[in-house]
Specification:
Length: 74
């Protein structure tokens, strides 16, 4: 999804679309980056508590729940 946002912003500039459209796309991209950083931090905290073996399962669980608007580690 990241590549499509970057491509949208790039072609928006190339086609001469309004700067506000590109700025909006950049804000969406930045918010997704921030969400991914939060997931990584939570996964790292989980690894420190429970060990590395389960971290991939935790990340998959978080990613499945993200599309429902939840970022929760169980």
């Amino acid at each position: 999804m990241r590549n499509s946002t970057v491509a949208f912003a790039y072609f928006g500039l190339k086609l001469g679309l309004a700067d506000s459209v590109c700025a909006h796309a950049c804000k969406i991209f930045q918010s997704r980056c921030h969400a991914n950083q939060q997931i990584s931090k939570r996964a790292s905290a989980w690894e420190e508590k429970h060990g590395r073996g389960e971290s991939n399962q935790v990340l998959m669980s978080v990613k499945r729940k993200r599309h429902h608007g939840q970022i929760v580690l169980q």
